Amino acid sequence: xxxxxxxxxxxxxxxxxxxxxxxxxxxxxxxxxxxxxxxxxxxxxxxxxxxxxxxxxxxxxxxxxxxxxxxxxxxxxxxxxxxxxxxxxxxxxxxxxxxxxxxxxxxxxxxxxxxxxxxxxxxxxxxxxxxxxxxxxx
Length: 138
Hints:
The chain has strands at residues 17-19, 28-38, 43-53, 58-66, 76-78, 85-94, 107-118. By secondary structure, it is mainly beta. It is globular, with a radius of gyration of 16 Å.
């Protein structure tokens, strides 16, 4: 049975991560989302982190919006600086006029979103290959 359904405005290969970032005891699903906005003479992609709160049936953006796109970059969530709070790392790439010439990117952006939410539990799925990363799968 489907409990929650939403649409994603653009195609991407990236997977999501999960953690309880609002402290309610239920994990949120966090994706590195892109959206195309058509302007008069160009098409522009914008990228932002988006949290899906399945328990409360809503979603909300996290951090800043960048003028770039995400094709295949899964975010990472954990405690990067050992301050006890969640940090989210993600990356996006900028292309000219939304023309995906993979050999001619205009810039790679790696961003960090630091939350003020204390980590009560370790993220259940904190990266592309889980919270334990590649070492678990060797």
